[in-house]
């Protein structure tokens, strides 16, 4: 059968369904190890989020956008990221299985959309890990006295005829991290915790030492004639749009959901702790840096170490550089960790060859998927300078954030009412495997081989779901129209105003319809844990924020992503649909829970 759309949704109370049978995992029913707790999740989340960007971003954004108001921009960016984190937290409680945004989209939206999200995430983590790895060698050069003094296995090699130098250091580090991840999730999260702790100590040094210098010298950076917001509110908002990507990484926590001992409790706390700690550290570091040096005098390449150098602390450069190296290594571990689990989830659903879903009995991790993704990232890091492809990482992340927000609306207002059931012999009711949610009375009222005769209440419930689904689609359409009008300033004024009006009316009217319909009672209280607050307003705000960021990524990025997505669509059409675990399924209506 073709890729499922809205009717092909899965039972929200059966997250382990959807092609996740033990027989399909290729490992003889072996599951991932449930060993992670809140400290492990916080280490993974913070390590994945705080990359070396903080050691560069503070200078660039302060000079070009915010001035001394950099701290406020970090706060706005953190709050914007929290919108997506709250959506992730609810879905990870409802569906605690590997796959993160792919898994949620598969259950709540449909297989075809989930495939595209999973395919985009594969690209995101591959390029993200490779770009992080290539940044380690230049930072190590300081400790050896320059690039030309690095050992041969760490130095970048310039080959005649190639524009990009080869980077054996990056490839070696990726392979080492891959080997670490193959040892087991508990071992890799322990190492991640040690590295992240050391990085946090470096950032605390910057905060404490910088604060001491600031109080001693009068915080000269805040005494400029242009005030706290030299570029106005617009500068702060544009700066927060750039800084938003400094908070990407908390979604790595959601990808480990299947390996958490108590996912309903620990996953929301792990994500919340990750964002809170990262936002605090970002704001404190930025407050110190822009306070020590006037923002126009900040070095955009080495903002922190150059700020200390102006006060005679040249030795602090080594401390800051060590923090950058630690941040890159922690980010590399967090970048490679989720990808094998997403591939494993896709293979469980039949969209990729089943060998990728195999879980090693001893280490209880998908070793083959881990080796494959690590090898691809190592080759890419060795051969290519992927900095020009960095925008493609953002597309995968923002698409995932958007579909997660849409999934929250779906599961609250229009949860699936049909469940795919295996059919051994087409046309015989006995071939439908039973669903644990329906009663004997349902079984006695078979109207046809594929479902029970609907009652009046079930017909009314189905109509309500269809109305809610139409409203959710219109919300997405309204957001696209509204953000497009705001983003493309080259459009004539009357066109912009018309599009803004149409998009705004669609958003407002569809939101009101959802409020009038009310949330589906069968979906409330089934998470066993965290529930996203302020639904539908919070997910809608999340959709708008992510759509705005997507619209402003640039045409070259979208062209590259379109080629990748087109290749993924071909794979899905010629392999995924044929081997999908939903192929040959009949859809059986489930009774309200």
From TrEMBL:
One MF annotation (Gene Ontology) recorded for this entry: amino acid transmembrane transporter activity
Topology of the protein relative to the lipid bilayer: Multi-pass membrane protein
Report the transmembrane regions from the record. Answer: 38-58, 70-89, 101-122, 165-185, 197-215, 235-257, 269-295, 315-337, 365-383, 389-411, 471-488, 494-518, 530-551, 557-575
Q: Where in the cell is it found?
A: Membrane
Q: Which InterPro entries match?
A: AA/rel_permease1, CAT_C
GO cellular component, alphabetical, reads: membrane
Annotated ranges, domain Cationic amino acid transporter C-terminal? 530-580
Keywords carried by this UniProt record: Membrane, Transmembrane, Transmembrane helix
The UniProt entry's sequence similarity note says:
Belongs to the amino acid-polyamine-organocation (APC) superfamily. Cationic amino acid transporter (CAT) (TC 2.A.3.3) family.
The name on file for this protein is Cationic amino acid transporter 3, mitochondrial-like isoform X2
Q: Which organism is it from?
A: Panicum miliaceum (Proso millet)
């Amino acid at each position: 059968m073709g890729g499922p759309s809205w009717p092909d949704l899965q039972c929200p109370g059966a997250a382990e369904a959807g092609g996740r049978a033990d027989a399909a995992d290729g490992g003889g029913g072996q599951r991932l190890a449930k060993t992670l707790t809140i400290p492990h999740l916080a280490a993974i989340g913070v390590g994945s989020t705080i990359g070396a960007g903080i050691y560069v971003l503070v200078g660039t954004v302060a000079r070009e956008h915010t001035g001394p108001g950099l701290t406020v921009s970090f706060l706005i960016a953190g709050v914007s990221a929290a919108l997506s984190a709250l959506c992730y937290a609810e879905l990870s409680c409802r569906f605690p299985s590997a796959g993160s945004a792919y898994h949620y989209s598969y259950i709540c939206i449909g297989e075809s959309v989930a495939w595209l999200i999973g395919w985009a995430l594969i690209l995101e983590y591959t390029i993200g890990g490779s770009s992080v790895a290539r940044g380690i060698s230049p930072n190590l050069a300081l400790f050896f006295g320059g690039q030309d003094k690095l050992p041969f296995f760490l130095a970048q090699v310039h080959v005649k005829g190639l524009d990009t130098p080869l980077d054996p250091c990056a490839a070696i580090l990726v392979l080492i991290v891959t080997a670490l991840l193959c040892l087991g999730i508990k071992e890799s999260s322990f190492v991640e915790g040690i590295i992240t702790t050391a990085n946090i100590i470096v950032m605390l040094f910057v905060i404490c030492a910088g604060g001491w210098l600031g109080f001693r010298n009068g915080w000269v950076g805040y005494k400029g004639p242009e005030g706290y917001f030299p570029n106005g509110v617009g500068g702060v908002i544009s700066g927060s749009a750039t800084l938003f990507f400094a908070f990407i990484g908390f979604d790595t926590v959601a990808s480990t959901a299947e390996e958490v001992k108590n996912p309903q409790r620990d996953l929301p706390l792990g994500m919340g702790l990750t964002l809170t700690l990262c936002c605090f550290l970002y704001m404190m570091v930025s407050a110190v840096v822009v306070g020590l040096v006037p923002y126009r005098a900040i070095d955009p390449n080495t903002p922190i170490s150059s700020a200390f150098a102006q006060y005679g602390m040249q030795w602090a450069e080594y401390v800051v550089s060590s923090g950058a190296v630690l941040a890159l290594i922690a980010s590399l571990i967090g970048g490679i960790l989720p990808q094998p689990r997403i591939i494993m989830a896709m293979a469980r659903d039949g969209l990729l060859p089943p060998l990728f879903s195999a879980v090693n009995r001893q280490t209880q991790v998908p070793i083959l998927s881990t080796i494959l993704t690590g090898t691809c990232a190592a080759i890419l890091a060795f051969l290519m300078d992927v900095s020009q492809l960095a925008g493609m990482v953002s597309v995968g992340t923002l698409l995932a954030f958007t579909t997660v927000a849409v999934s929250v609306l779906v599961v609250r207002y229009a949860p699936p009412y049909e469940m795919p059931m295996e059919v051994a012999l087409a046309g015989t009711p006995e071939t439908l495997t039973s669903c644990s949610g329906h009663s004997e009375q349902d079984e006695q009222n078979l109207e046809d081989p594929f479902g029970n005769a609907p009652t009046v209440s079930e017909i009314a419930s189905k109509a309500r779901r269809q109305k809610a689904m139409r409203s959710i689609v219109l919300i997405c359409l309204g957001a696209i129209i509204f953000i497009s009008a705001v983003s493309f300033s080259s459009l004539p004024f009357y066109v912009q105003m018309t599009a803004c009006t149409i998009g705004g009316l669609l958003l407002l009217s569809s939101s009101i319809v959802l409020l009038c319909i009310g949330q589906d009672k069968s979906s409330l209280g089934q998470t066993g844990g965290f529930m996203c607050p302020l639904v539908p307003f919070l997910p809608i705000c999340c959709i708008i924020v992510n759509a705005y960021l997507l619209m402003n990524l640039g045409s070259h990025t979208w062209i590259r992503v379109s080629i990748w997505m087109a290749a993924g669509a071909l794979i899905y059409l010629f392999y995924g649909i044929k081997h999908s675990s939903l192929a040959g399924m009949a859809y059986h209506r489930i009774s309200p829970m």
